[in-house]
């Protein structure tokens, strides 16, 4: 976190989001919606090779598990925690929102499942998930993941992380074999669900055709023009993603430690605050859900809408650029520093002098995030991402409201509470990035 004066940034961010809302109110929404739907073809690939890539990813995952058990217990020297928490949860999440659904290729289940399906002669599974399930099973799995990352006493411990990751792989693979790959990863496996949702924001789109895998390029969020509304369980899942990252920043702040009665200058460690942080994570999630649904309900009443559930299921897609922007801003320093450690550890996973990828002797420069000039650059990148994400969110929400109500006036009325919520979260996000932290 960077201790820089933020009052001017907060004011500027709030004004930028408010100005975007006002401009969209007076602009005709049809040309903006048409521009968002435009795609530019960028070619095709003769085949996707998805099963082969996924199987190689599975072998890499198995090697990481072995390194987690037999390698260094130092979280900055073992490739397992660095790969999961830095390269996967930080790096790949950002690429999902920018490039597209890379996880569909890189997940460690698709390749092994194709082999299982070939041997068993079944690709659809033996059991069926109820159509009304929605994402109700993915939601607690995502919550457990967030709790393990943020609250659990030692999420970076290589051996404990290896046990948790292996157990989750077995659980997921068993579900895929019983219910089928598409059904299980479409509604149960939380990483696949969340990453697919996030990829709707990306500029690239890929689809199969007789000529192979075709690619097109468009505006960020353009794929949301014809998206289906999410059920309330899907709404909750996207809000959980945003609230968990926000709580990650909040729980380290002097403010939160003061609320739970901890001296921030004498932080006793995670084990002492497990109960308080568990309650805090739940409360922040519930608060985010309440504020979002309240903004939707009030907006629908202002616009004369009747189905607030459909509106919530559509408007929640506008949360994706905010979630991606805050993910970038919150984890940027960790990505810059721990990403270097990851490159070193992957070349020498067992600390025995290997240099598999030519990065084993690289010196990790932690000073990349230190110094006044670097701090200024990082802070401005974080602030720009927060503000830009909210401006894009307001734009997407306005276009969505126009499709929902069919009238520019009613769309603008419905978005007044949502714009106020986004302005408030812009200020909150910038405050979180600048708040003094401990622990």
Quickly count the helices. 18
Calculate the mean pLDDT score and round it.
86
Helix content: 55-70%
Radius of gyration: 22 Å
How does the overall form come out from the CA principal axes? globular
> Poorly predicted ranges (pLDDT <50, ≥5 residues)?
none
Give the DSSP E fraction (strand runs of 2 or more residues).
under 5%
Q: Spell the H/E element sequence.
A: HHEHHHHHHHHEEHHHHHHHH
**Which structural category do the helix and sheet elements fall into?**
mainly alpha
Biggest sheet details = 3 strands, antiparallel
Instruction: For the record, give the distance between the C-alpha atoms at the N and C termini, rounded to a whole number.
Output: 12 Å
Number of strands: 3
Domain count: 2
Going across the biggest sheet, name each strand in turn: 1-3-2
How does this structure look, described?
- The structure is a single chain.
- With 439 residues, the chain is mainly alpha-helical.
- It has two domains: 249 residues, no CATH class; 179 residues, no CATH class.
- The chain contains 18 helices and three strands.
- Strands 1-3-2 form a three-stranded antiparallel sheet, with no helix packed on it.
- A hairpin with a 2-residue loop joins strand 2 and strand 3.
- Helix 13 packs antiparallel against helix 18.
């Amino acid at each position: 976190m960077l201790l820089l004066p933020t009052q001017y940034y907060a004011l500027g961010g709030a004004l930028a989001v408010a100005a975007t809302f006002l401009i969209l109110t007076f602009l005709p929404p049809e040309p903006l919606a048409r521009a968002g739907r435009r795609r530019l073809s960028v070619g095709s690939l003769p085949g996707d090779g998805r099963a082969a890539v996924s199987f190689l990813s599975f072998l890499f995952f198995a090697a990481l598990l072995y390194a987690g058990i037999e390698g260094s217990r130092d979280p900055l020297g073992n490739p397992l925690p660095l790969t999961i928490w830095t390269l996967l949860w930080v790096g790949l999440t950002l690429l999902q929102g920018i490039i597209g659904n890379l996880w569909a290729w890189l997940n460690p289940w698709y390749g092994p499942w194709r082999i299982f399906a070939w041997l068993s002669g079944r690709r659809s599974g033996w059991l069926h998930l109820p159509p009304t399930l929605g994402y109700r099973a993915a939601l607690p799995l995502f919550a457990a993941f967030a709790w393990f990352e943020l609250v659990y006493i030692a999420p970076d411990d290589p051996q404990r992380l290896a046990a948790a990751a292996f157990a989750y792989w077995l659980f997921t693979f068993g579900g895929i074999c019983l219910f089928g790959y598409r059904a299980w990863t479409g509604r149960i496996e939380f990483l696949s669900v969340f990453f697919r949702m996030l990829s709707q924001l990306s500029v690239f789109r890929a689809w199969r055709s007789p000529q192979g895998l075709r690619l097109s390029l468009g505006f960020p969020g353009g794929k949301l023009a014809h998206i289906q509304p999410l059920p309330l369980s899907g709404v909750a899942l996207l809000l959980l993603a945003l609230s968990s990252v926000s709580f990650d920043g909040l729980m380290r702040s002097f403010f939160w430690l003061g609320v739970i009665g901890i001296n921030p200058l004498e932080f006793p460690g995670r084990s002492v605050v497990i109960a308080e942080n568990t309650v805090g994570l739940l409360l922040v999630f519930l608060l985010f859900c309440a504020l979002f649904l309240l903004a939707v309900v009030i907006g629908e009443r202002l616009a004369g809408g009747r189905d607030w559930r459909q509106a919530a299921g559509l408007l929640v897609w506008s949360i994706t650029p905010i979630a991606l922007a805050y993910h970038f801003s919150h984890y940027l320093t960790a990505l810059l520093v721990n990403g270097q450690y990851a490159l070193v550890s992957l070349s020498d996973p067992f600390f025995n002098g290997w240099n598999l990828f030519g990065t084993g002797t690289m010196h990790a420069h932690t000073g990349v995030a230190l110094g006044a000039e670097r701090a200024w650059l990082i802070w401005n990148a974080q602030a720009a991402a927060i503000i830009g994400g909210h401006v894009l969110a307001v734009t997407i929400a306005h276009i969505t409201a126009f499709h929902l109500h069919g009238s520019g006036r009613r769309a603008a009325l419905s978005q007044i509470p949502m714009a106020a919520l986004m302005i408030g979260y812009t200020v909150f996000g910038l405050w979180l990035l600048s708040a003094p932290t401990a622990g």
